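Please go through this protein, sequence plus structure tokens, and consider how the sequence yields the tokens. Keep your notes short.
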Amino acid sequence: MGFLAGQDVPDFFLIENLSYVGSDGNGNSVWSGDRLNVTVGNHITINGPRLPSFGNSQKDFNTGFVGIVQNEDLPSLMLLERLAGVRQEWLGFWSAATGGVYDEFVTHPLRVYPERCGSILFSDYA
């Protein structure tokens, strides 16, 4: 699945024959290789056109987050707050990653399931 129409995909590149050179003065890894320029046309030639087409593709998505705690404990407030934070960050990431073309929804209330296999499963996806 591509997040953009073919004409909106910028050219990109791959590095072939990648080899580790060493580290710079700041301890960052330094690599060497051969740049291979790639266009969406190259990709379509090799892999074929996108199916379904961009115009006919799904644009709305639902995401659920699941947490599991052991030994029949209820999730702590801290764990629930962390789950809420991950959820919020995901929505921001999704919007940026897709250029706002696709919508992401996380609309279900948090549910706690104490009857699952001796562990507590909690989820915000129905």
